[in-house]
Amino acid sequence: MDARTLTLLEYEAVIEGVAEAAATPLGADLARALRPAWRREAVEERLAETDEALVLLERFGPPDFSGIGPIDDAVDRAVRGGLLYPDALYRLLSLMIGARRVRGAVLRIVETVDLPRLSRLAEAIQAPPDLYEALRGAVASAEDLRDDASPTLEDLRRRIRALEARIRETLERMVRDSEFQKALQEPVVMFRAGRAVLPVRADQRGRIKGIVHDVSGSGATLFVEPEAVVALNNERRALETAEAREVERILRRLTAAVADHAEALRRDEAQLAALDFALAKAAYARRYGHARPMMEEPGGRIALYGAYHPLLFDRAVKNDIVLEDDVRLLLITGPNTGGKTVTLKTVGLAALMAQSGLFIPADEGSRLPVFDGVYADIGDEQSIAQNLSTFSSHMVHVVEIMRRATAESLVLLDEIGAGTDPQEGVALAAAVLEALAERGTRIVATTHYSELKALAYERPWARNASVAFDRETLRPTYRLLLGVPGASHALYIARRLGLEETVVERARARMSEGAKRSAEIVQDLSDRLQSLEAEHARLAAERARVEEARRALEAELAAQRAAREARLQEIEASFRRRLEEAVRRADMIVAELQSLHQAAQTSPASAPALKPHEWIARQRTLKEVLKGLDGAAEQGAGRKAPDAQSADRVRTPLLPGTAVQVRTYGAKGTVLEVRPDGEAVVQLGLMKLTVPVQDLLSLETQGNASSKTPGGSSGVRVHAARRATFEIDVRGMTVKEAEAAIDEAIDRALLDGLDRLVIVHGLGTGALKRGVAQFLSRHPAVLGARSGGREEGGSGVTIVEL
């Protein structure tokens, strides 16, 4: 710790927790070097960086930092001209691979979310491409280079492998040879001094000629390099020497490249460390549920809500610790082991953590001013070596604090004035507190002295607080009560620890009545305040439960509204699609019939003939279109109505022969002609009127359409010269002649409203019957066809359903 953070040693434990959350040794080292910032701008920047890192972790998860580690020793060695071996080069390559991976991951994330600080860190990572490619193409592992690191190295290693294969093959052949097997201790190939040898029995030395490279400890085995492989081994050794020279040449080339990029590599290492450290701060906050504090100007309000000591984790009791702008001193009283010192440290650690860029163990909305120093005198540091008593060790710290503290400092004093004569201790403690408060210093202090409680009550810049004590269980509750001084409860604690009751009562008898009454009043106030706080907590929990239920109901209602709106939009879209299709099909039919009508008006002789079944098919199509439109309209009920003009155009197709009502006169008639200028000629009884089309109301949609026949159209020629007969005889006709006759008979039957037709074709060769059947299968007006029954004429007739 530096000189501005005296004796608050738990801060180091917090920092170690952040270091353990780091993904790399680089981030961990940066965490361990962390110290508070003392300017508000620097503090806000640090907290904003942690905030961005927390957003990244929660939305995307941590980047992969695997393979990233320290490289400064390797870079320094390269710069000094030393040779880097594969292990160092592999660490450099691993860092560059990881750097490229982390940089890419962060830059992809910042494309979707604004994280400017993390973006700057990632963008500064270079991982020099030429060095990266050189290392990637040469380094295979921490032990060796790649075979293809250079063409020469590749050739040498290929030749070495070939020689090794020849040597092994020669020796294995000797091992399998019965002539040599009796001379061998074991039928294996071994190596001594880098050369391939055979284990030969000492008494059989003359059986295998060669060079002895080693002898076993017992002397019973000689390790002999047979003459057959000596030359090959010599050649292999020469190649290995050349290989070592080539490897050294490649290592020197790569080392020089590292030295050339030393600054870029150091910068990348620093940026990766900073990124990892930022994410470690966020991971630490996320793991323990810490929140970002709002930073005030120096001298501003201290408001820690639900605060607790960061090293107690889930065992801690959360408390609200509040000092308004005009309060310089918070004096905490209460029994020993009740949590006074923990509360003191909680305030100090929260300040140090916030100014280090760490989130604090408190709820959202907590606020802290930026301090220029945090000074603490906590614990008993008496020293025999320095001839310091408890009191003296405290005073050494207090003197140093008085020398350094300013109006923008935070001072933490535990049991101020203790360890000496109570009367002098109270006087000295009061003087120190007043002197610091007059400077404007923020002070949190603990004491057992009743006189200091009075000081905190009398001074407008001071506030009392106490840690609660349960007299029924004789145990502290660790709850901080603001505004109420606390009793020490020494007699209660002594009784709980087993002191004889007579001794406790004797001590009570020695207390003055005023002291007894004062302790009872303080305890009664404390009990009432705890009761009020418990009720407040109950009401807050109930309000939270009601609020949660309200939010759940609102969310459910919103979901229902959204589902209903989506369903209505789906219905409207379906309705519009069906409407558009209906309009399209109706327009095609109307256009066709009007075209036929106009052709008949201008040139009756050359007008195309429309067969009755074709006319009926078009009527049926129009009816289906209208029916589909009705269905779509029912689906779209309650939604925005479609274009009225287009709907009317579909539902009231005005054609010659259409029954209509003239709105102006209320009279009914029949359309004789529809003109291109938007007017129509209508037959009203004995009169013919020319009226605007908009003044006509079609009666076809009211059930009259089915009673109309094509014969009512004056503009379409329909062949209906005579009424259809129930039966047509086509015997003696060719298939082509029969088809024409049957087609005409079907038209006449349709015009007469018949739904069945009997075709007499006889038996004969069966060719006419087959031709008739094929024709009927293609005819659009035929519903089905079958051979006649025995009473209907048998196989010589065909019964047609229209």
Count the beta strands.
24
Uncertain residue segments: 1-7, 382-387, 638-652, 701-725
Helix percentage range:
40-55%
The biggest beta sheet reads: 7 strands, mixed
Calculate the mean pLDDT score and round it: 83
Alpha plus pi helix count: 22
Strand composition percent: 15-25%
What is the gyration radius calculated from CA atoms?
A: 52 Å
Secondary structure class reads alpha/beta
> What is the CA–CA distance across the termini?
104 Å
Seen as an oligomer or otherwise, the chain set is single chain
Structure description:
With 802 residues, this protein is an alpha/beta fold. It has a 7-stranded mixed β-sheet, sandwiched between helices. Strands 19-18-17-16-20 form a 5-stranded antiparallel β-sheet, with no helix packed on it. A 4-stranded antiparallel β-sheet has the order 2-3-5-4, with helices on both faces. α4 (72-79) packs antiparallel against α11. The longest helix has 90 residues, at 513-602.
Keywords, separated by commas or semicolons:
802 residues; alpha/beta; 7-stranded mixed sheet; 5-stranded antiparallel sheet; 24 strands; flat; disordered N terminus
